[in-house]
TrEMBL record:
Protein name, entry field: Cytochrome bd-II ubiquinol oxidase subunit
EC number, as in UniProt: 1.10.3.-
GO BP of this protein: aerobic electron transport chain
GO MF assignments: electron transfer activity; heme binding; metal ion binding; oxidoreductase activity, acting on diphenols and related substances as donors, oxygen as acceptor
Annotated Basic and acidic residues bias: 516-525
Keyword Coiled coil among record annotations: no
Pfam families (UniProt xref): Cyt_bd_oxida_I (PF01654)
Membrane topology summary: Multi-pass membrane protein
GO cellular component: cytochrome complex; plasma membrane
Transmembrane segments: 20-46, 58-76, 96-120, 132-150, 193-212, 224-242, 398-420, 432-452, 478-502
Subcellular location: Cell inner membrane
Alphabetized UniProt keyword annotations: Cell inner membrane, Cell membrane, Electron transport, Heme, Iron, Membrane, Metal-binding, Oxidoreductase, Transmembrane, Transmembrane helix, Transport
Residues covered by region (Disordered): 516-537
């Protein structure tokens, strides 16, 4: 068992977190805009009205900018699993690599192939054929998300694999269980629909900018209305499917749900409050203050009125026997590697499900070797390991709340916007239009907080219950990690600057053709760079 410098592990985590967060700025917009483009083009094909073709072409141009830069930021991430997380790749590579390979061969190639036809096929394909291409691009982008989230779900709820003591790695067992992992299905729909919320706010916010400037009124009003209706449906779906994920975490990852809820002690149903705000203290394992809503937590998480939710102190206590059992498993596995005796294999099989907890104890064992802990020190090692099963509560608790509070804001904004738009009173509600503009980046921020909740809440595991994060990294030097981290930050910052510049430029230009108002583009004043900068902030 090779131990990596803790600084290297931390830097590896930080680098992957930054590259993932950078990349995830582009993904939600890609997922959502594809189906919005398909919806606009469908109306064009059915009604024959030119303005809906203009909408599809204009928003498609902004989609193309986002898609290209999103691809550039995503490709390098897959290489990080080999360069920075080689132990994880060895241990879980079969389960993680299979869906990623399918994503590349099926979804990414499909999406990349048809996206060219979507952009350059307007005058070369029939209306119906081009519409089919647009739907295939939407399908490809969402299938890409599906396979990536199937890979991620295996890290959170390992399904379809078993540990092989001969190869010392997780072996692929069931493709059906891998694909139909309930965590994967719930995460896919939740993440995809969150992308639809991002796209709806993007279209609605830029349309609001045009309406405030008095430009492209008919184009902007139709885009705004379609985005508002699309957004309110998507927000309801996001909130509903988030509840499904919460229920799954309650069943499969109790430490994550306890951290999300800031629950240090097991709940007392049905009166346990849902904590709106608190200051969790990881060191003292307590909340310094709490503001909660009574009678909400139990039905919200358990969907009953009498099931308790285990608190973090009780989860630590429950982990004690699993850590002891895990130490037995690792010791038997070590002996089996030397003796290949049936007795050692049988003993390992008996304690196999707790092996990860034995590996987790390695940091506290003498000489970091759990196979040679003196009998009189086992209790000390177990007690020292128990707090390690918990994630960073402060980060998990608040990232989840920021995501939830922003989702409620989106619901209110979309609902009011849809109502005002249907009443045709948009241009008389300047404050609403400004709020829509200022809210453009917020759905992206909400998805980032959602990703932080999911990944920080899984700690201390890369594969939940099986492989601790501190054993998963590659054995690089600190200087190498610092150099590569700086390189990625600079490169990805250039990508973001390019995205913002191109988005601002083409959004300022607006649609090239507006059949409803042929002179509006020439008569209206040109928006300034300052105006568009305020739109993004």
């Amino acid at each position: 068992m090779e131990f990596i410098d803790p600084n290297v592990v931390d830097l590896s985590r930080f680098q992957f977190a930054l590259t993932a967060l950078y990349h995830f700025m582009f993904v939600p917009l890609t997922l959502g805009l594809t189906f919005m483009l398909a919806a606009m083009e469908t109306v064009y094909v059915v009604t024959g009205r030119q303005i809906y073709k203009d909408m599809a072409q204009f928003w498609g141009k902004l989609f193309g900018i986002n898609f290209a830069i999103g691809v550039a930021t995503g490709i390098t991430m897959e290489f990080e699993f080999g360069t920075n997380w080689s132990m994880y790749s060895h241990f879980f590579g079969d389960m993680f690599g299979t869906p990623l390979a399918i994503e590349g061969l099926m979804a990414f190639f499909m999406e990349s192939t048809f996206v060219g036809l979507m952009f350059f096929g307007w005058d070369r394909l029939s209306k119906q054929a081009h519409l089919a291409v647009t739907y295939l691009v939407a399908l490809g982008s969402n299938l890409s998300a599906l396979w990536i989230l199937i890979a991620n779900a295996g890290m959170n709820v390992p399904e379809g694999a078993h540990f092989d003591p001969e190869t010392m790695r997780m072996q692929f067992e069931s493709f059906v269980n891998l694909v139909f992992n309930p965590d994967a299905q719930a995460k896919f729909v939740h993440t995809s629909v969150a992308g639809y919320v991002s796209a709806a706010m993007f279209v609605m916010g830029i349309s609001a900018f045009y309406l405030l400037r008095g430009q492209h009124r008919q184009f902007a009003a139709r885009s705004f209305r379609m985005a508002a209706l699309f957004g309110i449906i998507s927000t309801v779906a996001v909130i509903t499917l988030g509840d499904v994920l919460g229920r799954l975490d309650y069943e499969k990852q109790p430490t994550k749900i306890a951290a999300i809820e800031g629950l240090w002690h097991t709940s007392k149903p049905p009166f346990e409050p849902w904590i709106l705000a608190a200051l969790p203290d990881d060191a003292k394992q307590e909340n310094h203050f709490e503001v909660g809503v009574p009678l909400v937590l139990t039905p919200l998480i358990t969907h009953t009125f009498d099931q308790p939710i285990m608190g973090m102190h009780e989860l630590e206590d429950a982990a004690g026997p699993r850590i002891r059992s895990g130490i037995e498993a690792v010791s038997a596995l070590r002996r089996y590697g030397v003796t290949h005796s049936d007795a050692d294999l049988a003993l390992f099989t008996q304690h196999e499900q707790d092996m990860g907890y034995g590996l987790l104890a390695a940091r506290h064992a003498p000489n970091q070797d759990v196979t040679n802990i003196p009998e009189n020190q086992i209790d000390t090692v177990v007690k020292a390991t128990q707090p390690d099963i918990l994630p960073n509560v402060f980060v998990t608790f608040w990232s989840f709340r920021f995501m939830v509070f922003l989702s409620l804001w989106f619901f209110a904004l979309f609902a009011i916007s849809a109502y005002i738009s249907l009443k045709r009173r948009l241009e008389h509600n300047k404050l609403l239009l400004k709020l829509c503009m200022w809210s453009i980046p917020l759905p992206i921020l909400a998805t980032e907080f959602g990703w932080i909740t999911a990944e920080a809440g899984r700690q201390p595991w890369t594969v939940f219950g099986w492989l601790p994060t501190f054993l998963s990294a590659s054995s690089h030097g600190v200087s190498y990690m610092v150099f590569s981290l700086i390189g990625f930050v600079l490169l990805y910052s250039v990508f973001i600057a390019a995205e913002l510049y191109l988005m601002f430029k083409f959004a300022r230009l607006g649609p090239e053709h507006d059949s409803m108002e042929p002179h509006a583009q020439h008569d209206a004043p040109k928006p300034s760079a300052f105006d568009m900068h305020s739109t993004a902030s």
